[in-house]
Task: structure prediction
Amino acid sequence: MSPASSVPPVPPPGSAVSVVGIGADGWAGLPETARSVLLDAEVLIGGERQLGLLPPVCAGRRVPWPSPLRPAVRGLLAAHAGSRIAVLASGDPMFYGIGRALTEELGAGALHVLPHPSSVSYACARLGWALEDTETVTLVGRPTARLAAALHDGRRLVVLGADATAPAAVAALLREHGFGPSRMRVLEQLGGMDEDCLDGTADTWAHPAGDPLNVIAVDCRATPDALRLGAVPGLPDEAYEHDGQLTKRHVRAATLGVLAPAPGELLWDIGGGSGSIAVEWLRTHPSCRAVTVERDPERARRIARNADRLGVPALRVVTGRAPDALAGLPVPDAVFIGGGLTVPGLLDACWDALPAGGRLVANTVTLESEALLADRYRRFGGALARLAVSHAVPVGGFTGWRQAMPVTQWSVRKTSSTPSGDN
Result:
């Protein structure tokens, strides 16, 4: 019997699992409906901290979550199938909480969710911030670098920290990105008897590590000389570390425009160079995903550094030569080819990988690659464009135009599963 088949099935729909949100105020802060569920439960599952908030009158068997938590969910629920189960969660279980994992395992119909105010709701209430105008960034189980993508002058952020070291790490990142003047308030034990608030700026943050149960409120303020990174594609070229292999700003903006990223979609960025196309694809929405393929190991390392610095550390970098390096990658929603068009089989492999409705965009500056794109345009349609950008430069004591190499761009949406070899 395989390990997977030895795990009993999780409780079926109809045997509802209750999910109860609880705050730092513990039992005293729970409404009667939540208390009744916990008193009736035969099995109480939660973190050690949440379980410790319950009084002895809750007589169900207490089962702490193991670590790591996510892989254990199915087996733990299966082990207690047939019992009345109540799962404890911090605050709102459906807001960066265990509710998502339980829904994926059981389905929404098998859950009875009783939410508590989230720490973000508490923080906005304490600060007088409108919740709908405040962006939430979680660093729980995620790199601190992802905060960089949310930094905009004047923006208000609530950052969910993983532990007591999070405020210092956030302050360091703010300073590194030119946001040292930003006001930081660390709100600890929100809603509890020991609630506290530490105040300061990222530049002067010197508070020692405090309570691990904290959220960090940031009023973003940039220094006058901080590099401005907008919310749309076309970041300044100087935002990237590169060796010359960089899709320049104006062409990059036009390329992302036709790639048309949407939430949750996956991009293949072939011939990553500096990774700029993949980075800016990911910056359009937190749920976007991207894989960049780069044959040169040093450039691959550079791409990873750019992704970290620009707030998208989830970018997957594959070091290898396409098309061989494409084997085993998840099916893309869009493909960008910025280099290697003349490599035998590359363009066909990318086209064949796309599902119906997928998009492909390819850029080139050479006549040889341009001929390939013209042939595909004839066979599959789409749009063929030439992008030419000129910049003003000194000419003696005057100013003139210097034109960059024109870029030929083919963009197309695949309307059927027709393979590349068919006409």
Notes: The chain is about 25% helix and 25% strand. Confidence is low (pLDDT under 50) at residues 1-14. Residues 367-380 form the longest helix (14 residues). The two ends are 49 Å apart (CA to CA).
